[in-house]
Amino acid sequence: KIPEATIKRLSTYINCLERLQVEKHPVISSEMLGEYCQVSPAQIRKDLSYFGEFGVRGVGYDTKKLEAEIKEILGLNYNWPTTVVGVGKLGLALLNFTLFSQHGFSITAAFDNEPGKIGTELAGGIIIQPTSAIEDTVRDRGILIGVITTPADAAQKVADQLVAGGIQGLLNFAPTKVKVPEEITLRNVSITSELDNLAYLMTQKKKT
Amino acid sequence: KIPEATIKRLSTYINCLERLQVEKHPVISSEMLGEYCQVSPAQIRKDLSYFGEFGVRGVGYDTKKLEAEIKEILGLNYNWPTTVVGVGKLGLALLNFTLFSQHGFSITAAFDNEPGKIGTELAGGIIIQPTSAIEDTVRDRGILIGVITTPADAAQKVADQLVAGGIQGLLNFAPTKVKVPEEITLRNVSITSELDNLAYLMTQKKKT
Ligand SMILES: NC(=O)c1ccc[n+]([C@@H]2O[C@H](COP(=O)([O-])OP(=O)(O)OC[C@H]3O[C@@H](n4cnc5c(N)ncnc54)[C@H](O)[C@@H]3O)[C@@H](O)[C@H]2O)c1
Ligand SMILES: NC(=O)c1ccc[n+]([C@@H]2O[C@H](COP(=O)([O-])OP(=O)(O)OC[C@H]3O[C@@H](n4cnc5c(N)ncnc54)[C@H](O)[C@@H]3O)[C@@H](O)[C@H]2O)c1
Question: Rounded to the nearest 5 degrees, what angle is found at the Cα of B24, between the Cα atoms of B19 and B29?
């Protein structure tokens, strides 16, 4: 089993490899990739070793090729139709974040239950729909991923509607546990855990 | 070295333990904690084993005591004065998220460079200040953590101002690498990596 931390680092290597291509570096060493990604070259080599041989010893990695190989490992060479439910502050920040589409996630629908928001047009021509339309829209558009950015007390009902429509993956930002059938892949995002991890690292630094 | 994934799971155990106390469960098993946290009991026991012995074999864990012990491991039994720079959609969502304060992060200042936002009062009585005031305010209030939610091109300058004021830790949401001195603890947050991880897990499930 490959550590989740490795998967998340691979994701950040994609962004670095894109920047390296923009800055005209067709071939790079793990040292250079490490410099761009703020990760040690040894960690990069270790992460890649889970998936086979990459690059040529003594020469380095082909930047464009490595990016394509990592995208294939992560399953990003497909298109993942995605929807956001709960178009509040967090939902809106995610809807406007253009990096998602570079990784193959195309946000094709958005839902909310506030009458004043329903019918609003967002960037990219998406029109906010009422939550009563979740099931049909998910089915009709073959949406595979749902992102929940509603208040905690609404999250379970929204998850049920997304699952009923045929969603396969859920990213939940609401601070509550949602129950989904076994075949659905569910991940909970916690920015609080990012802060806690930062506090832990700062406390460790003080001790040394 | 303790895996970062373990630290982030410990963080989520705190929220579960708080809910268990609200629902009047003074003593719990790792099975029950696992049910609440959507983590296997074996993973919980493994995570805790990095830090010593917890609970009583055959009896279980004291819910309140375990929460306090985990908070101490993560360094959350202190108060961490925090500031947010860039009060846009993401910044505002973080400023309004009450769970941070339960983990000891008290947001005591917010900064932006848009004239129309400066002077606005936010929840909790925080008044948005101009970025020119970052260094003095961080120093005067002993702010230890900075959260960067500005556009990417502003992130480095903001990081420099926070470091000059005496910040010790930085949480960067802008999709760019910022350089900070060795003694500063920097973590980059990528919600894209959460989606990539979800896509990877969904692709793996299809293969099995
Ligand atoms: N995971 C984290 O670390 C983190 C950080 C910040 C916020 N949050 C959480 O993310 C969620 C969104 O935060 P926010 O600041 O954007 O809040 P917000 O209030 O700005 O947005 C919530 C949106 O959900 C909509 N909504 C309410 N009930 C709904 C329902 N039944 N169905 C569909 N939509 C509904 C509201 O109309 C609103 O547009 C909250 O649950 C918050 O606790 C999590
Ligand atoms: N890490 C992720 O996965 C992720 C997800 C969504 C957004 N983002 C990033 O988070 C950041 C914020 O996103 P958003 O949707 O809230 O954007 P936004 O445009 O709504 O907010 C940006 C805020 O920064 C302020 N600002 C601009 N220049 C500044 C400067 N020099 N100093 C101080 N403040 C300045 C603006 O006035 C605005 O209030 C962006 O960099 C975006 O790319 C990251």
Answer: 75
- Name the 3-class secondary structure at B200: helix
Alpha carbons A156 and A89: distance in angstroms, whole number: 20
For the Cβ of A138 lying below 6 angstroms from any atom of ligand 1, the answer is no
Nearest CA owner, ligand 1 atom 13: A90
Q: Are A6 and A47 in contact (CB under 8 A)?
A: yes
| Non-local CB neighbours of B53 within 8 Å, separated by 6+ positions | none
pLDDT per position as a tens digit, B133-184: 999 999 999 999 999 999 999 999 999 999 999 999 999 999 999 999 999 9
Instruction: Find chain B residues with C-beta within 8 A of A200's C-beta.
Output: 7, 73-75
For the domain spanning B80-192, the CATH number is 3.40.50.720
Residue limits of CATH 3.40.50.720 in chain A: 80-192
Q: What are the tokens at B29?
A: 């098993």
Ranges of CATH 1.10.10.10 domains, chain B: 4-72
Instruction: Find, among B159, B161, B166, the residue nearest to B180 by Cα.
Output: B159
Please state whether beta strands B128-130 and A105-112 pair in parallel, antiparallel, or not at all (unpaired): unpaired
Please give the Cα distance from A48 to A29 (Å, whole number).
Answer: 13
User: What pLDDT score was predicted for residue A192?
Assistant: 93
Task: Output the six-digit token pair for B175.
Answer: 């999709």
Query: Do the Cβ atoms of A201 and B191 come within 8 Å?
Result: no
Answer CATH for B4-72 from 2.40.50.90, 1.10.10.10, 1.25.40.10, 1.20.1070.10: 1.10.10.10
Q: Is B191 in the pocket of ligand 2 (CB under 6 A)?
A: yes
Q: In whole angstroms, what is the distance from residue A192 CA to residue B78 CA? A: 15
Contact A73 B200 (CB under 8 A): yes
- Please work out whether the CB of residue A88 comes within 6 Å of at least one atom of ligand 1: yes
Could you count the other beta carbons within 10 Å of the beta carbon of residue A72? 13
In this complex, how many residue pairs, one in chain A and one in chain B, have their CB atoms less than 8 Å apart? Answer: 187
